[in-house]
Amino acid sequence: MSVSGGAARGPCALEALRDGLLGQLVVYASGAVKLRVGDVLFDVLPGAPLAHCEQLAALNPGAGRAAFLGTARARVVLTPDVDALLTTTARAAAPTDR
Q1: For 7-39, what is each residue's pLDDT tens digit?
Q2: Cα separation of 43 and 33, whole Å?
């Protein structure tokens, strides 16, 4: 599955996301998994196993609020896909022919 193409949308604010949606999970034939949030790709890797019940929460310090999103069933580690970021930056910086 290709993750390139489409119009640039820019950064994605948490408030702009629909309920239950963080981004798009992309699974490749090789088994590699990436998460697309806005225009940023993250590599998805297994995290440390859970030792006890953990809750996921979104904090809004400005409003003094917290929203509990649910119980964690597993941990994953998300790291920015540096190759994709560099490619996107290089394309944006390249001069365009007019």
Answers
A1: 445 566 666 766 766 789 999 999 999 999 888
A2: 6
